[in-house]
């Protein structure tokens, strides 16, 4: 079984008693929480109950601001990959899917990934929200502003791992709509 991170969108956030209605599938990524997922949940980030697992290990964030940052980074990365048709298709598909699945919130499920370590799952998500996500957003914002070319070059060199997740209308965990 491949461990994945799962990204969804919805117009409300999960609560202790209920999950949102009309959960839209965005993306899943094997064996990691990719840069794209971290950026998409980078604004208004909050820990919420998971829609899949028991611990409070879900992450919710502002959809529009996260999508705007990822689109800007895709554009910046693409400026060094003009001849890479695979990257161009990935960027176009990602932008189109984000537009199609638009909602108020992104909802990131990290349970399979954080379960790979011996850490307490809730503490691992807290570190992700307090440290990893803000650091990724800061680097991406600097790169988009032309202030971190070395980091941008590293993202460009490994764009498939950082930005090339599976985007689709159905993920391994999908919700009836």
What can you see in these coordinates?
It is built from 7 helices and 6 strands, in the order E-E-H-E-E-H-H-E-H-H-H-H-E. The protein has helices at residues 35-40, 63-78, 85-100, 111-114, 121-144, 149-157, 159-163; strands at residues 4-10, 24-30, 46-48, 58-62, 105-109, 166-167. The two termini are 26 Å apart. A 6-stranded antiparallel sheet has the order 3-4-5-1-2-6. By secondary structure, the chain is α+β, with helices and mostly antiparallel strands. Helix content is 45%, strand content 16%.
Topology:
Layout: E1 4-10, E2 24-30, H1 35-40, E3 46-48, E4 58-62, H2 63-78, H3 85-100, E5 105-109, H4 111-114, H5 121-144, H6 149-157, H7 159-163, E6 166-167
Antiparallel strand pairs: 1-2, 1-5, 2-6, 3-4, 4-5
Helix pairs in contact: 2-3, 2-5, 5-6
């Amino acid at each position: 079984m491949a461990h994945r991170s799962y990204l969804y969108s919805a117009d409300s956030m999960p609560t202790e008693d209920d999950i949102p209605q009309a959960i839209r599938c965005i993306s899943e990524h094997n064996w990691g929480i990719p840069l794209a997922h971290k950026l998409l949940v980078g604004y208004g980030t909050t820990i919420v109950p998971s829609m899949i697992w028991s611990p409070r290990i879900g992450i919710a964030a502002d959809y529009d601001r996260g999508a705007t940052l990822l689109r800007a980074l895709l554009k910046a990365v693409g400026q060094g990959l003009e001849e890479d048709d695979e990257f161009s298709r990935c960027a176009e598909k990602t932008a189109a899917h984000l537009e199609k699945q638009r909602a108020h919130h992104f909802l990131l499920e990290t349970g399979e990934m954080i379960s790979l370590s011996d850490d307490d799952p809730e503490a691992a998500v807290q570190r992700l929200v307090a440290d990893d996500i803000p650091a990724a957003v800061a680097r991406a914002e600097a790169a988009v502003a032309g202030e971190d070319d070395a980091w941008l070059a590293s993202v460009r060199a490994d764009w498939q791992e950082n930005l090339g997740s599976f985007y689709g209308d159905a993920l391994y965990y999908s919700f009836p709509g």
